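Hi W.,

Here's what went into the run:
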Amino acid sequence: MPRFVIERDLPGIGDTTPEALRDGARESNAVIRELGPDIQWVQSYVTGDKLYCVYIASDEDILHEHARCTNLPADRISRVVAVTDPTTAE
Amino acid sequence: MPKFVIERDLPGVGALTPEQLRERSRESNTVIRELGPDIQWLHTYVTDDKLYCVFLAPDRDILLEHAQCTDVPADRIARVATVIDPSTGE
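Here's what came out:
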């Protein structure tokens, strides 16, 4: 299954308390469990006004469904064709 | 040191060959070495038309300098408040 990066525009999201982030993660996990094995949440970078979320999923549709069920925006969904790091140079 | 996500709009970047990605990684590593120990490239998600790059750095300025030296855009630089994943829900 491919990896995807989702951009979610959420002004002020970086000020979310740890408790609220925990609740949000719980909700997300519950929806992912319901959606089945074709979607896996890897991690999310929480910045001041935006989330960058990394998923492994069968396709964009299931990511849109997850966004709908969790009431989160999915402003841009991009399939990851490669992951590079300093070792890529070798 | 804080973590940052950098968005780089590069139409067609996803079509680069592994050799081209390797070459770009080498260039990036060279510049990072010159800029000193305060900047560390962690990894980059390569999508069709955009790069999402994750760095450790003391501030935006050094990231802008790296972008200038490697001739890549830095369309958005966002400081990461925290990284969450499914275990955040526990």
